[in-house]
Amino acid sequence: MTSNLPLYVLAAPLLTAFVVNLAGRFWRGSVAILSLGALLFSTISAVLVLQQVLTHGTIHYTVGGWQAPWGIELVIDPLAALMLALISVVALLATFSALASARQELPGREHLFFTLYLILISGLLGLAVTGDAFNLYVLLEITSITTYCLIAMGKGRAPLASFNYIIMGTIGACFYLLGVGYLYMLTGSLNMADIQSILPGMYGSISVATAFAFLLVGVWIKMAFLPLHGWLPNAYTLAPSSTSVLIAPLMTKVAVFLMIRIIFSIFSPDYAFFQHVGVQHLIVWAAALAILIASGLALAQTDLKRMLSYIIVAEVGYMVGGVWLANTAAMTGAILHIVNDALMTLCLFLAASAIVYRLGDSKLASMKGLYRRMPLTMAAFTIGAFSMIGVPPTAGFFSKWYLILGGIEAGSWAWVYVAALLISSLVNAVLFFRIIEIAYFQGGGEHGHSAEMPRQEACAWQLSPLLLSAVALLAIGLAAGPLVEHLIIPALPAGF
Amino acid sequence: MNIITSLLPVAAVGISLLGAIFIILANRRPNLRESVTLLIAVGKFLLVLGMLPTVLAGGGFVFTLAELIPGVPFQLRVDAMGMFFALVASFLWICTSIYSIGYMRALQEHDQTRYYASFAVAISATIGVAFSANLLTLYLFYEMLSLSTYPLVTHERNAEARVSGRKYLTYILGTSIGFALPAMLIVYAIAGTLDFTSGGILTGTGVSPGTVALLLVLFVAGFAKAGIMPFHGWLPAAMVAPTPVSSFLHGVAVVKVGVFSILRVIFDILGPDLLLSLDLGIALTYFVSVTILAASLIALTQDNLKRRLAYSTIGQLSYMILGAGMLSAAGMTGGLLHIAMHAFGKITLFFCAGAIYVASHKKYISEMDGLGRKMPITYFAFFLGSLSIIGMPPLGGFLSKWQLVIGAVQADQLVLVAVLLISSLLNAAYFFPIVYRGFFAPAKNGTEGDGFHEAPLWCLVPLTITALGSLILFFYPGTFLRLIQLALS
User: Fold this and answer.
1) pLDDT for A387-438, tens place per residue?
2) How confident is the model at residue B115, as a pLDDT?
3) Residue % of chain B over a pLDDT of 90
4) Distance of alpha carbon B479 from the chain centroid
5) Which residue from B236, B263, B430 is spatially nearest to B331, judged by alpha carbons?
């Protein structure tokens, strides 16, 4: 009874992208209606797919009826279904804000912008569900190339940042492709499940190790795992708000998901974590170091978006470390953190978008007195900040809880990771309270009775998704128990 | 013991959270706003009071709000110990609300809506801590209290408030994330639960003595609201806040939430028996003795009245930890009882300091010569409050100090007896001169006017009530003692 539902999720934004390009030339208003319509359709379908997967188990969908391993297969296991829902929900919320920002930043070019924007989203959705290693490469390139363009649409040095990203991103993609090439030579197959069934006989081979290393480093570049993060801060800061609000929450998280896919669907946890002695510990320590260094760099920033970008890099360290701790608690934490971090980053970047929309820039110094000027925006920002710090009952606390618990359970070698997580929480507290302090204390005068600033809230298009994401952070936090039980635990890859 | 599943504890915690929304909505109508504040204060006290008979009869209330982590729900539970603290806090909040109205209006303070709303959230968090059924719920409310008091501490929004606010968060939030959170996770990893269970949850888990010691250190350091040195620096700094905030939050709610959290951990997480077998209780008492003496000595040197009171608070808070650390019935009773006795005494003193500021705009003790003759009621209340803190009959403070001394004697720790007695002398040394100079010293530069000049009634009434409260508690401590007895059994 395989319905075509999974394909609808991907196809809706992809097909609409081209319609937007044409219709947007004649009628500006159609861009918003079409984009939102397509994404709403995707979101509903994705939620239905998730529900189906949770009740009936993994869906295997053969595209065009060509049987695997020759045809392309979509494998929607619970984790992929969760990603599908996450990506479509985040994209839908981000789009409201992006529409408002794009009208201001790219007047007259909205239809072009949203063509790429929608293709990017269908690429991301495709990455979540594909069961084919080479198809994954293609989708990776689709998302990357659209992202390069979307970033380059920014002002000033944005094209340069995009160029940097192209160089790094292409190297990453090449690494991934080389890895797939090795695997194809070894197994003669590109289908993940097929590769996985053939590989175990050759686990001793150095070629398999090479392939694994290439795949891993490839996705690490894509997810900006420090020290491979160099491209990210400039790209995310200089990109137009309408772009960063979509890519900041999703790109790195999808790359983390791909790492999990590689480990669990192409190789096996036994191979990845335990075949090569010492590698597991080394990667967790590297993740701890990444967290510490990125947090430190975030402290040095004077621009909101740039600071958030470094926090994203630190959060990547959280998730990489969590996956590589290789126990149930940490893996639960890592997957929960994919969800939470996507929403926290969305919330904070939506707030940043709203602030840029009103103030014209995102410098911390410009944010003086902002609690009076944009009280609702700042209220939502504060909730996002608390979630990043890890204050209960916001969502961020609970994923951090599982990650630290995983670190404690892993044994004494993982203490560096536990310490890094705690220190990073403290650094986040400093980072965000610095902003809260600037925005709370009145601009100009150092005394409380100075003249009041006029209230000037962000527009409804930006405010509503922002408030919704802030409420979601609280709701997810309070529903952490059932959420983990019914969504995250089933989504844990087999073997955990 | 019959535990009733009921929404009452949720209502007791939630009423002021809901009230905060109405306070914000009533932004432009001060009278309505203050009425809401008073209404929810009284409502909260009645809700707490309504649960008292059941608790006194040995029962309790419980309500699970959400499932957060396997084995650790977001759960409220009313037991004797929580009821004891909630009773004190919610009663004194009524007094503080009345006092706030007098103080804020007399000084024509700015941003009063934010002030009242933050205050309402803070009291919600305080009662939440009292009624928490497990450590995670307690931690949640603990952080909520830290964050909701930040706008109150920085109310003045000048350079000094900014620095104090930073110090406040660094100490409070920094220690709770840096120390209390990992300690909580270690306990969860060992025991698989965080429920407060009489006798502790670590006994029988085969936990090593080193780990227990580490946990105790992490928890004591992590709940920095208790003001144990070296994590006390935030409290004097926080005195930059308006006086009602200092009196309620930094005399009662915030600081005692710190003490309460540490006591909960000692009684219901680590367990007295486990600590006793490892001699960790005595180690803790010696450690806090340093704070008791040092804080009293520093208080002697302070000329700013509120700062002197702050250092006095730091010393007195450690009394409570001292009592708990003795791990004997008398010691633990004294420690818990001192929460209530000190609360009534210290809030009176802070109220008086605020009343003096409202009436005469004086902050420094050296400027207050002769002021007692103009403000006799305020000064008499101050006198009663200081007697209670020093521990003299017929005031409540005597009872708790008596129990503490008995506890120290029973534990054969004469050093601790000496610490308690020396500290009492020091308390007298830093309080009596204030009263003496107020009543008997000649006023400086001839400002002596005729007649009385007291603070407004809104300020005067609450401080009279709390001063009399200290007196009444000496004669009728029955309910509190019964609750403590239930909590320790």
Assistant:
1) 999 998 899 999 999 999 999 988 888 889 999 999 999 999 999 998 988 8
2) 87
3) 38
4) 19
5) B263
- Residues A139/A123, Cβ–Cβ less than 8 Å: yes
Give the residue from B65, B68, B75 with the most A CB atoms within 10 Å of its CB, the best one to mutate: B68
**Could you tell me how many CB contacts below 8 A there are between chain A and chain B?**
85
Q: Is the pLDDT of residue A59 over 90?
A: no
Residue B55 and residue B87 in contact, taking contact as beta carbons nearer than 8 Å: no
* Integer Cα distance of B388 and B404 in angstroms: 15
Strand pairing report for B72-78 and B60-69: antiparallel
Q: Please name which of B377, B252, B378 lies closest in space to residue B309, comparing C-alpha atoms.
A: B252
DSSP, res A331 = H
What does the alpha-carbon distance between residue A26 and residue A43 come to, in Å, rounded to a whole number? Answer: 27
Measure the CA–CA gap between B481 and B489, rounded to whole angstroms: 12
Backbone angles phi, psi at B231, to 5 degrees: -105, 40
Q: Which residues lie below 8 Å from residue B29, measured CB to CB, with a gap of 6+? A: none
Tell me, what amino acid is at A96? F
Structure tokens at B272: 């007295």
Asked if B178 reaches chain A (Cβ–Cβ under 8 Å), the answer is: yes
pLDDT at A316: 94
Distance CA B71, CA B479 (A): 34
Residue with tokens 């990603």: A83
pLDDT for the residue B448: 57
DSSP one-letter string for B368-407: -TTHHHH-HHHHHHHHHHHHHHHT-TTSHHHHHHHHHHHH
Distance spanning both ends of chain B, measured CA to CA? 12
Q: For the segment B426-468, what is each residue's pLDDT rounded down to a tens digit?
A: 999 998 988 888 888 887 765 556 667 777 888 888 889 999 9
3-class secondary-structure state, position A130:
strand
* Residue whose structure tokens are 């289908």: A191
List pLDDT tens digits, range A321-345: 999 988 888 999 999 999 999 999 9
Question: CA angle, corner A125, sides to A155 and A352, nearest 5?
Answer: 35
For residues A352 and A55, give the distance between their C-alpha atoms in angstroms, rounded to a whole number.
39
B74 touches chain A (CB under 8 A): yes
A391 vs B147: CB contact, 8 Å cut-off?
A: yes
Cβ within 8 Å, pair A479-B154: no
What rounded mean pLDDT belongs to chain B? 88
Measured CA to CA, the distance from residue A129 to residue A119 in angstroms comes to: 16
Which residue of chain B has the CA closest to A405? B185
Contact A429 B140 (CB under 8 A): no
pLDDT at A128: 92
B76, two tokens: 């409220």
Read off the DSSP letter of residue A453: P
Contact A211, A183 (CB under 8 A): yes
pLDDT of residue B312: 92
pLDDT digits (tens, 9 = 90+) for A124-146: 999 999 988 999 999 999 999 99
Q: How far is B181 from chain A (nearest CA, A)?
A: 9
| Cα B118-B123-B128 angle, rounded to 5 deg | 125
Residue B411 is encoded by which pair of tokens?
Answer: 């534990």
Cα separation, B453 vs B433, whole angstroms: 21
A392 touches chain B (CB under 8 A): yes
What is the reported pLDDT for A449? 42
3-state secondary structure of B48: helix
Token pair 């090479």: residue: A210
Q: Provide, as residue numbers in chain B, all residues whose Cβ is less than 8 Å from the Cβ of A481.
A: 66-70, 73
Residue A444: per-residue pLDDT: 47
Q: Is B458 left (phi over 0), alpha (psi -120 to 50) or beta?
A: alpha
Nearest CB neighbour to B169, from listed A404, A433, A480: A433
Residues in chain A: 496
